C-alpha cells in the first residue's frame, strides 16, 4: 500500500476562480463605462504547483496564458492551447527564438540584448512583444530614460517584419500593501502615454484592488496578469481568498499513522521544543518537509482531523508531523487529516504560521506526493 499522503487539484475550482476574477473585471469596467481587460492567466512554476495540463483545462476561458519556462509553453501547446502565450521573462539566448517562432509565442522584452537578438533573428512569422518598463521595482525592464529609445527600436523591427504588435508593461512591487500602485503607475503613465500599444500592469493584487486602472477603451487595450488568486490563495496579508469569492484549487491530505499517549512533561519530536503541560493524545501524520510542508510551521498551526480543527505540536520533521488529538478523542490510526485546501485550513493560514506565503507552499509540493486531478 502506498504511503497515505496525496494532493488533489480541482480543475473546476481553477475555472471558478477565473470566472470570479472575470466578473470583478466586468463589473469594474461597467462602472467606469469602459471595456473589460483581457486576462493572461499566469501559470508559471508548473502552474504554482498545480500542473500545467490542469491549468490549461481550468483556464480554458482565459484570453491568454503567461509563464516563464519555454518547456512549459510547449506543454501548453501540446495540451491543446491555441491562444496567446506570453513569456514573462522573455528569451535568454538566440536559439530560444526558434521555439518562440515554432510555437507562436509572445514574449516580454526587457533589455537591449533581447532587442539585439531579435534584430539578428530569422523568423518564419512576426513575434508579438511586450516591452517592459522598470517603473521602480528594479528587477526587469528598461529604465524610464531608456524606454522611448527601446520602443522606437521595437517599432523599427516591426517595420522590418520581425516584430508584430508592441505592447507596454510593468510590474508593481506594492500592490498588496498600503503603499499601493500610484507612484509606479505615475512613472509608467508619464513614460508611455504617448506611445502606441496594449498595456499590461496588473498582477493578482492590482487586479483585485486596483482593477479600475486596467479598464480598456476602444483606443487602448488592456491585459491583466492574475496569478496566485486563480489558485484560490490570497495575495494580501489582510484579506482572505474567500472574501473575493475564491476557492482553493489544491488540497493536501494524509492520515494518522500512529498515536502516542503523553504524560505532563513529556516532549515531542526533534529538539524537544514542545512539552506536554498535561496528559494528552497526539497523532503522528504522514507528512513532513520532504513532502513540501513547511518545516518552520509552529505549534498552533491549524490542521483538520476527521473534519475537526486542531493544531500541530512540536517540530515538523522530514516525513512526519504531530497533531493534538484532544479535540478528536475517537481519532486513531487511519483517521483522515487535511493539511490545507478544500476541507482543511487555507494554505494562507498554514503559510502565516510558518512565516511565509501561500505561494511558496503551493509551489513547494514535492514530486513524491501523488497528485490527482479532480474535475
UniProtKB/TrEMBL annotation:
Gene Ontology annotations of biological process type: D-alanine biosynthetic process
Catalytic residues of the enzyme: 44 (proton acceptor), 270 (proton acceptor)
A single GO cellular-component term on record: cytosol
One Pfam family per UniProt: Ala_racemase_C
Superkingdom of origin: Bacteria
Binding-site list for substrate: 139, 318
Required co-factors: pyridoxal 5'-phosphate
InterPro entries, sorted: Ala_racemase (IPR000821), Ala_racemase/Decarboxylase_C (IPR009006), Ala_racemase_C (IPR011079), Ala_racemase_N (IPR001608), Ala_racemase_pyridoxalP-BS (IPR020622), PLP-binding_barrel (IPR029066)
SMART domains reported in the protein's UniProt record: Ala_racemase_C
Database matches in Gene3D superfamilies: Alanine racemase (3.20.20.10), Lyase, Ornithine Decarboxylase, Chain A, domain 1 (2.40.37.10)
EC number(s) recorded for this UniProt protein: 5.1.1.1
GO MF annotation, one: pyridoxal phosphate binding
Keywords: Isomerase, Pyridoxal phosphate
N6-(pyridoxal phosphate)lysine PTM positions: 44
Catalytic activity as recorded in UniProt: L-alanine = D-alanine
Associated pathway: Amino-acid biosynthesis; D-alanine biosynthesis; D-alanine from L-alanine: step 1/1
Function: Catalyzes the interconversion of L-alanine and D-alanine. May also act on other amino acids.
PANTHER family named in the record: ALANINE RACEMASE, ALANINE RACEMASE, CATABOLIC-RELATED
Family: Belongs to the alanine racemase family.
Protein name (record): Alanine racemase
Organism: Achromobacter denitrificans (Alcaligenes denitrificans)
Amino acid at each position: 500500500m502506498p504511503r497515505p499522503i496525496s494532493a488533489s487539484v480541482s480543475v473546476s475550482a481553477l475555472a471558478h476562480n477565473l470566472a470570479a476574477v472575470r466578473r470583478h473585471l466586468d463589473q469594474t469596467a461597467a462602472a467606469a463605462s469602459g471595456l473589460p481587460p483581457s486576462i493572461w492567466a499566469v501559470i508559471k512554476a508548473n502552474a504554482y504547483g498545480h500542473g500545467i495540463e490542469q491549468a490549461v483545462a481550468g483556464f480554458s476561458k482565459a484570453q491568454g496564458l503567461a509563464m516563464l519556462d519555454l518547456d512549459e509553453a510547449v506543454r501548453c501547446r501540446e495540451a491543446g492551447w491555441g491562444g496567446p502565450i506570453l513569456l514573462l521573462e522573455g528569451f535568454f539566448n538566440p536559439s530560444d527564438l526558434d521555439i518562440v517562432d515554432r510555437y507562436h509565442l509572445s514574449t516580454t522584452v526587457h533589455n537591449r540584448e533581447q532587442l539585439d537578438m531579435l534584430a539578428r533573428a530569422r523568423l518564419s512569422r512576426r513575434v508579438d512583444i511586450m516591452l517592459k518598463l522598470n517603473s521602480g521595482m528594479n528587477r526587469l525592464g528598461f529604465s524610464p530614460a531608456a524606454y522611448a529609445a527601446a520602443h522606437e527600436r521595437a517599432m523599427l523591427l516591426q517595420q522590418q517584419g520581425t516584430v508584430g504588435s508592441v505592447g507596454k508593461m510593468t510590474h508593481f512591487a506594492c500592490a498588496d500593501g498600503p503603499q499601493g500602485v500610484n507612484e509606479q503607475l505615475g512613472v509608467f503613465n508619464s513614460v508611455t502615454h504617448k506611445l502606441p500599444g496594449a498595456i499590461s500592469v496588473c498582477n493578482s493584487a492590482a487586479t483585485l484592488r486596483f482593477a479600475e486602472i486596467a479598464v480598456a477603451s476602444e483606443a487602448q487595450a488592456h491585459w491583466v496578469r492574475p496569478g496566485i488568486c486563480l489558485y484560490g490563495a490570497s495575495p494580501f496579508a489582510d484579506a482572505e481568498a474567500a472574501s473575493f469569492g475564491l476557492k482553493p484549487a489544491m488540497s493536501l491530505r494524509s492520515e494518522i499513522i500512529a498515536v502516542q499517549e503523553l504524560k505532563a512533561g513529556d516532549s515531542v519530536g526533534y529538539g524537544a521544543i514542545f512539552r506536554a503541560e498535561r496528559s494528552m493524545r497526539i497523532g503522528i501524520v504522514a507528512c513532513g518537509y520532504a513532502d513540501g510542508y513547511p518545516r518552520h510551521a509552529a505549534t498552533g498551526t491549524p490542521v483538520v482531523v476527521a473534519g475537526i480543527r486542531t493544531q500541530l505540536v512540536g517540530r515538523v520533521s522530514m516525513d512526519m508531523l504531530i497533531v493534538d488529538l484532544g479535540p478528536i478523542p475517537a481519532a486513531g490510526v487511519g483517521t483522515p487529516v487535511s493539511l490545507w485546501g478544500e476541507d482543511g485550513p487555507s494554505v494562507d493560514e498554514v503559510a502565516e504560521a510558518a512565516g511565509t506565503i501561500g505561494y511558496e507552499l503551493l509551489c513547494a509540493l514535492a514530486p513524491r506526493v501523488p497528485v490527482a486531478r479532480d474535475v
